[in-house]
Amino acid sequence: MFTGRTLVDGEWVVRRDCASRSRTSGAIYQESFSRKVTLVVHGELAGNVKDMDRGLSRKLLAVLESRKAGRHIHVVDAAGFSDLLFGSPALCRSLKVQGENVAVAPEVGDGFLGGPFDRLRLRTRGISRFEADVLGRGTPRHEQLLSRLVDRVAGQPSVDIRAPARRGPHLDLGWIREQTAYGAWVAAPQRSADGQANRLTEAIDHVGRQVRSVPRHGKVQPIVVIDDSVNLNAGLEEKAKSLGILIGKVKDVPR
């Protein structure tokens, strides 16, 4: 179900065409609210979906009432709907009443972090030559280090591990802690002495460029995670600090 036209990757799409695209992806669309509805897309609210007495979207008001009654309905925003169309997981959004309107509540990390973390999807993503050379992505060493990082972060029961935003920086995984969105890049280049230090310097520059290039909501903290065998010298630490990046071993990662 849609509340109005929706911005799909920068293109305004009217509700009728949103419905057509969702059917193509295998979804069943319906216009009126009922107990069969499991997903609502929060688009731009049009005049014909307003509650004339309270000025609220009838559909979103029904979602709020349904949630209060104990029946959860998944709500995604325009970015989430775009993610679903491209086969990516979408974050379920919280709703809040603002004056006479129901709106999606912004969340720390919007634009930086995406939906739930999916290790299988991470393994099957495309890897550029640069990422393979500089970060070591696709190698057993990178996989092993990433597994250790996942185990550390997932070890906290209150931490929700998140995937990267589909159109955001290509981090490995993220999480939110105390109103800060953390995004981690695992860097496991080849072991050659001087070459490894140069690769890590390139990795830090790469992360800095990616973080600067995207809009995001709230405080974000990029992290470069390195193997225990790496000698973390002062030069690398100063380089990372100058770009607002943390760099360290798995045991040093805040969670």
Overall mean pLDDT: 84
Unreliably modeled segments: 46-55
Helix percent band: 25-40%
Proportion of strand residues: 15-25%
Distance between the termini: 36 Å
Helix-strand pattern? EEHEHEHEEEHHHEEEHEHE
User: So what's the overall shape?
Assistant: elongated
User: What count of helical segments does DSSP give?
Assistant: 8
- Outline the biggest β-sheet: 4 strands, mixed
**What is Rg?**
21 Å
Describe the strand arrangement of the main beta sheet, using strand numbers. Answer: 9-10-11-12
- Counted beta strands: 12
Q: What structural class results from the helix and strand content?
A: alpha/beta
Which quaternary structure do these chains form? Answer: single chain
Describe this structure in words.
The chain is of the alpha/beta class. It is 33% helix and 20% strand. It is built from eight helices and twelve strands. The radius of gyration is 21 Å and the shape is elongated. The two termini are 36 Å apart. Residues 46-55 have low confidence and may be disordered.
List the helices and strands and how they pair.
Layout: E1 6-8, E2 11-13, H1 15-24, E3 39-41, H2 58-68, E4 74-76, H3 78-85, E5 95-98, E6 101-104, E7 113-116, H4 119-124, H5 129-134, H6 140-154, E8 162-164, E9 173-177, E10 180-187, H7 193-212, E11 219-226, H8 234-242, E12 246-248
Parallel strand pairs: 3-4, 10-11, 11-12
Antiparallel strand pairs: 1-2, 5-6, 7-8, 9-10
